[in-house]
Amino acid sequence: MDFKTKTDNSMKARVAKLKEELGRVRTGRASPALIEGVKVEYYGQSVPLKQVGAVSSPDARTLEVRPWEQAQLQEIEKALNKADLGSMAKIDGQVVRVSLPAMTEERRKDLVRVVGKLAEDYRVAIRNDRRDAMEEVKKAAKGKQISEDDQKINEGLIQKLTDAFIKQVDDIAAAKQKEIMTI
What we know:
The structure is a single chain. The protein is of the alpha+beta class and about 180 residues long. It has two domains: about 100 residues, Orthogonal Bundle (Topoisomerase I, Chain A, domain 4), CATH 1.10.132.20; about 70 residues, Gyrase A, domain 2. Helices cover about 55% and strands about 15% of the residues. It has four helices and six strands; from the N terminus they run αββββαββαα. The strands form two sheets. Strands 3-4-6-5 form a four-stranded antiparallel β-sheet, covered by helices on one side. The protein has a two-stranded antiparallel ribbon with strand order 1-2. Strand 1 and strand 2 form a beta hairpin. Helix 1 packs antiparallel against helix 3.
């Protein structure tokens, strides 16, 4: 039984999800990741914005969406205005532009707290993965599927994995917090 690989895959997925969620947290610079997930009505379907147009950031406080079909301009504008980005989307010729307001010191501190809470949620999820893996190892040892020595070895490996992934989460969160506070 390969407890380490299963746990490793689960924890890797958690770290990838954390990176994805942190990509949506606004920093001082406009990032296309902020709006790529916004859902747009497209021929009766609700699809992510990045499937109906190219999202770019021409400068530090502007996001631009260039739709694949010009008929989608109004739908994109409507979806972006519903997304509550703190600023209104406007159609400008062939593109939809969103000008983001400058961030205040207070808003930056709020976002740092949000990132801290998100990181803590992922640390807890990783610890839960560890707990589940440890229980599986104990069950296998109890059912005589693995020896006591293998149980100890697997528990040690799982703990090392947990420590490594929690450090990764801490490093990712610290980098994001630094990025938010950088003006």
